[in-house]
Design goal:
Elements: E1 4-6, H1 11-17, E2 22-27, H2 32-47, E3 53-58, H3 63-68, E4 76-81, E5 84-90, H4 95-106
Parallel strand pairs: 1-3, 2-3
Antiparallel strand pairs: 2-4, 4-5
């Protein structure tokens, strides 16, 4: 499974229309920690196909959604389940830390 690219226009539709929890990575091109976590998210997307959907939202290109969810620093990761925000993580994490944080959503 690949990582979805989210936009202000399609954000709610994606979050509300998903059969699985959605992890949204709020990021920007200039953000070093965002670049560090990107390969980790790609691995999780591949390994957890069918359990969780991963999307990325560029805060520079989509400021409305970032403002709506009060994203003050990046990377910020948010988990939405059945359309509602369930968890917010600020800052980069290792794969192990991230999987531990997501265990309640992916059954790990």
């Amino acid at each position: 499974m690949s990582i979805l690219t989210l936009t202000d226009g399609a954000f709610d539709e994606t979050i509300n229309g998903s059969d699985t929890p959605v992890l949204v990575d709020f990021w920007a091109e200039w953000c070093g920690p965002c670049k560090m976590i990107a390969p980790v998210l790609e691995e999780i997307a591949r390994e957890q196909t069918g359990k969780i959907t991963i999307g990325k939202l560029n805060v520079d290109d989509n400021p409305d959604t970032a403002r709506r969810f009060e994203v003050m620093s990046i990377p910020t990761l948010m988990v939405f389940n059945n359309g509602s925000l369930e968890k917010r993580l600020v800052g980069a994490r290792s794969k192990g830390q991230l999987l531990a944080e997501l265990a309640q959503f992916i059954g790990g």
